[in-house]
Amino acid sequence: MKIFLLEDDTGISMGLKYSLEKEGYEVTHAASVKEANDMFQKDTFALAILDINLPDGSGIDVCKKIKETEDVPVIFLTAYDDEVNVVMGLEIGADDYICKPFRVKELMARIKTVLRRAGKTKVSSSDPEIHIGNVIIRLNEAKVLKMTDSESGKMTDLELTAMEYKLLLVLCQNRGKVLSRSQILEEMWDVRGDFVNDNTLTVYIKRLRDKIEDDPTNPIVIKTVRGLGYLVN
């Protein structure tokens, strides 16, 4: 997945590029408005991270140009006291912003959240259903069904909360991969305020198992990998 980075500070840009590439993203970097405009004409990107204050202009101008031609999600990098520019950026279509200095983990969580909202995650409408054991997730309807009678094929509509559904999707998007608790927490962190901490995650895992597992004390769908995290096969 390609990410565009506009940042004139060499130290910040090198660190971000390294961190993003470690997460599996392909990064294209520009250090000026002119470079950014040229690069966007030659390639397409899943997301853009734009610094606001640049030597030859503003990242806001780059955002305007991007939004005129394509709906690419945008995250602004900004200073703490730059409230006016932040508001302006959000008004022209930016999806989020983060203030310098910031923690890389926090930015990664925001990137995942913005990509998820834009429908650019591993699970998309091109795969309208996910089957795990006797559970079916209908993505287009945000509905989870469980087979309660294999002979008749009877399905029961499970009533999951928004956070339980989000947790189930996070696990399914990483199917076959052991996710640590910290990785799950990063995926579920939401800039809108739906914060999940470690203790709350334990509760959500238990509630989700109570609803989707035949025997929650001996889970088959969401397995615990002792000392490492959780796994959906």
Describe this protein's structure.
This protein has about 230 residues and is of the alpha/beta class. It folds into 2 domains: about 120 residues, 3-Layer(aba) Sandwich (Rossmann fold); about 100 residues, Winged helix-like DNA-binding domain superfamily/Winged helix DNA-binding domain (Arc Repressor Mutant, subunit A), CATH 1.10.10.10. The protein contains 8 helices and 13 strands. A 5-stranded parallel β-sheet has the order 2-1-3-6-7, with helices on both faces. The protein has a 4-stranded antiparallel β-sheet with strand order 8-9-10-11, with no helix packed on it. A two-stranded antiparallel ribbon has the order 4-5. About 0% of the residues have low confidence.
Task: Explain the layout of strands and helices.
Blueprint: E1 2-6, H1 10-22, E2 26-30, H2 33-42, E3 47-51, E4 53-54, E5 57-58, H3 59-69, E6 74-79, H4 83-91, E7 96-100, H5 104-117, E8 129-132, E9 135-138, E10 143-149, E11 154-158, H6 162-173, H7 181-188, H8 198-212, E12 222-225, E13 229-232
Parallel strand pairs: 1-2, 1-3, 3-6, 6-7
Antiparallel strand pairs: 4-5, 8-9, 9-10, 10-11, 12-13
Helix pairs in contact: 2-3, 6-8
Count of helices? 8
| Strand residue content | 15-25%
CATH architecture of the largest domain: 3-Layer(aba) Sandwich
Rg (CA only): 20 Å
CATH topology of the largest domain: Rossmann fold
Largest sheet: 5 strands, parallel
Backbone shape: elongated
For the biggest β-sheet, the strand order reads: 2-1-3-6-7
Low-confidence stretches: 122-126
Distance between the termini: 24 Å
